[in-house]
Amino acid sequence: MKHIFKTLIGAGAFMLALSSCKDDSYQMGEISAPTDLVLTADVVGKDAAHPNGDSTGNVKISFTAKNAISYRVDWNAADGEAFEVLPAGNTVTHRYTDNGLHTYTITAKAFGKGGQETASVTQTVSVYTKFEPNPTLVTNLTNDADKTWNVDKSVAGHMGVGPWSGSSGPDWWSAGVNEKVACCNCFYTASYKFTKIGSGYTLQVTTPDGAFTKTGALTTLPGIPGTGGEACYTYGGGTSSFTLAPASSGIAASNSTQTSMILAGTSTFIGYGAVLKEYEILNITATTMYLRVQGTETGNAWYLKLKAQ
Question: Which CATH class is domain 135-308?
């Protein structure tokens, strides 16, 4: 009898729970792709006298679309220039740094709930950029002919890492004096020769003990293995041109020269091989140089202190 009574109680509890479950209902909102995407790109300073802008290279970009929660914009689809993902309702100013008159194709997509996306829209803009670097900076970097630099292992903070956005210093980690000698002395024996030739510049990288880098997709240097940890790897050196251009990071002038070196091609680097090709010069004298560069793990900013030979 006790068994039957317990069974009836259990059955009643089960039916009550089932009834409670039936009372709850959940519905997912309608998921639909955004529509009516419009991309607007205005070259800053454009007028009848300056049809390609005011020479700053700035272009003001805005987007509208129905039911959009974010946008992806490729700044120049033709050459794979970096893209950004922007929130809905955003207007942003992008700075093109190639000197002279250039035509860029801007491509945008809108994204809605559940990752639904629109077809791409594009707009082509012609932008004139003129940038003349500070002559003292050029002299300090190249001696108006050529000058060779090395990573300065004798000072703390000769390498560091911090967030790419919202910071201008190595907030996460900073190297101590001689920190990489035991594991990766190639970091210190590599040299970087900057040469001024007329109005152009070249960089020659010499690595008697290899390149200090990560591997695989985290570097574009030729000959680096597809797998392996951060270490010294055989690398035959390389030479490339580079340009001096307005820095694109947005760091305040109080913490930066506002000037970057942008390396051409994929065969050269400065200091560390797992970074992108724009090295912002935070500070430079005749004997010291402090650089900031975005890592190929793009949330990271790497910092490098070099000394002149």
Answer: mainly beta
